[in-house]
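hey can u run this one w/ flavin-adenine dinucleotide bound, need the structure tokens asap thx
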Amino acid sequence: MKSLPDSEHIIIGGGAVGLGAAYALARAGVKDLLVLEAEEEVGRVTTSQGAGLCGQPRESVERVRLAMHSVRVFRELQASTVPPDWHEVGSLRIALSDRRVEELRRLKAASDAAGLETHLISRQEGERLFPLMDLSKAKGILWCPTDGWMTPQSVAQSYAHACGEMGVRIARGTRVEEILLREGRVAGVRTNRGQAACRQVINAAGAHAYHIARLAGLELPIIPVRHEYYITLAMEGMTPSIPCFRIPELTLYGRARDGGLLLGGWEPRSVHTDPRGYPIEGTPPALEPDWRVLGGFEASFEELLPASRGKGKQRVGKGWPTFTPDGRFIIGESRRVPGFVMAGGCNAHGISGSGGIGRLLVESLLEPHPSDYVQSLSPDRFTETSWTWEQARVDAAHVYETYYGV
Ligand SMILES: Cc1cc2nc3c(=O)[nH]c(=O)nc-3n(C[C@H](O)[C@H](O)[C@H](O)COP(=O)(O)OP(=O)(O)OC[C@H]3O[C@@H](n4cnc5c(N)ncnc54)[C@H](O)[C@@H]3O)c2cc1C
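ok here u go:
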């Protein structure tokens, strides 16, 4: 018996990115959409591991606009029947050197050009917004009042519900095992629950995006890099309305979570893995908390937040977000395999980027003249050039290690 409906578009992966893509396409009028998710629940894999910060000030106007679009989508979802746990509490980006103050000015200029409200504020104002923080060493602070945080899986659930209301079908517990090609173009998928014909597949399989691309005969450098944060025990003053923060010199970010401090960061020597080393039905290597790295985050942060010194921990968050060698998303249809579309390579901002990635996907697939920016994100940049896995891993690791690089 055939248990899956044929559909015009099939999205592989029900994480933040796949569901954000489904939401954007459905809002743009594409109704014949089926999302296939291997797990029994949406947002259970990398999405559920995210710290949930959403920061809009970025170096380029396009990237600011993309993040702004995500925030618009989160607001839209808040008015829906199953709202996400989204808190628009603002964020502080704290510079500890003159060089970083220059960076704040550049971020502000890009934000101004994109129409995003930001302010360079004083230490006193920063401490008023985040009373637990000692900002006496801060040389500059950029305040973005519309940044915020979310509980990542709630965003996936909210997308799924809103998609369902627009007629999108979501098949959980359905693992794609083969992409069916006819005369070189996508014709359907075979899964553990049967086959379905389609005109387009959209690969949003996170740490399995490499494997899904291989099923279509494409080799894409989508490289999982380990990322971690910890959450302390409850601390007086860490209320949900406290702003998020980023301290680029210390390569740290954080927010309030479950009454404590969530502190994450980017270590200078990353741990990455080769996606060819685990099968499509497997998972990246299991992770244990790395206290050498997490302890380093704690040591460099305690001067700024003395109340966190020696505080016990309630939990560690960890996972394998994917990185690309050039640090850019991979979005759009492949010229090599018509009907094969990418939505991935999120470089650890796939949840906060999900709304904007959806919009770029709509532009790339439905608009007659996608912008140069959107075209530059095409998977063809990796399928029509030569590269090696060794170099791709080095480059992707570098993107991670210099996440807050100037
Ligand atoms: C510790 C940590 C902190 C982070 N902090 C943030 C943050 O603050 N802000 C932010 O924006 N991002 C953050 N990220 C990154 C973010 O989690 C990812 O960018 C995002 O979740 C990627 O979403 P996704 O939908 O691409 O992947 P996933 O959530 O992994 O979804 C992919 C889905 O595809 C499914 N799938 C795989 N193979 C198949 C198959 N064959 N058939 C069917 N389904 C399949 C999987 O089951 C999975 O559900 C963080 C990540 C980590 C690990």
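Residues 63 and 137 are 29 Å apart (CA to CA). anyway lmk if its weird
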